[in-house]
Design goal:
binds fe (ii) ion; 76% helix; Ferritin; 224 residues; mainly alpha; 9 helices
């Protein structure tokens, strides 16, 4: 673990001990400022979402379920990476809670989960850009998870700002903060195993390609 990661963990531990989850969330939000997106979502995207919010909710629920499965797939694929397993499990649980919360909103509105889940060109497009080799692929998978979470955060903020109901605005604001935290966590996990220069150079690669990819996907009332 790098000196920087050790310092961050120590700070995080002290905050958790002294002040609980609240300050920990604030800390993650501050740290998130180190993560970027190359291409902000256009106004047409939030318009499409707000014009067909039921469809968006169905896709959103799927995305939360898949985010939980992604975190657990790291646990299954890399059982020897002991340093990151507790945080992966915690992330998987948080994503499943998000799924539960989105599904509760859907139930209230009488919306069912989607019967068929179409392939996601966004995730497929990102996976196609992975480098070869077991270690390189491990780094890529962590950083893809990071840029996907960061995009989620950016878009949930737009959804929060567009809400007219206070409860829904609060819910999407909570998600925005949580996904931003996840965007940071996956980079922090990579820093356990690769030096900082390599991690941030590779992150720049993924931020750039994610930006190109998201622009190439037609605008739909979906998260991606
Ligand atoms: Fe989530
Ligand atoms: Fe997330």
């Amino acid at each position: 673990m790098s000196e920087r990661s050790k310092k961050v963990n120590k700070f995080r531990f002290e905050l958790t001990c002294n002040h609980g989850i609240c300050l920990r969330t604030i800390l993650y939000t501050i740290m998130k400022l180190n993560l970027d997106i190359a291409c902000p979502s256009p106004p047409a995207w939030i318009e499409a979402v707000m014009n067909d919010f039921d469809t968006f909710l169905q896709d959103h629920a799927d995305c939360e379920r898949k985010a939980s499965a992604t975190a657990m797939s790291f646990v299954a694929k890399y059982p020897d990476r002991l340093e990151i397993i507790p945080e992966l499990i915690e992330t998987a649980v948080e994503e499943l809670e998000h799924f539960q919360q989105v599904y509760a909103i859907m139930e209230k509105r009488g919306i069912q989960l989607a019967h068929s889940i179409p392939k996601d060109p966004y995730i497929i497009g990102l996976m196609q850009l992975c480098h070869s080799g077991i270690k390189e692929r491990f780094l890529d998978r962590l950083l893809i998870a990071s840029v996907v979470e960061t995009r989620g955060a950016e878009r949930f903020k737009l959804v929060a700002d567009a809400q007219t109901e206070e409860e829904m605005a609060r819910f999407y604001k909570m998600l925005w903060i949580s996904e931003a935290k996840h965007g940071h966590i996956y980079v922090k996990m990579a820093l356990n195993y690769f030096d900082e220069q390599k991690v941030y150079d590779r992150l720049a690669y993924w931020v750039k390609h994610e930006g190109n990819l998201i622009q190439s996907i037609p605008i739909r009332p979906r998260l991606h």
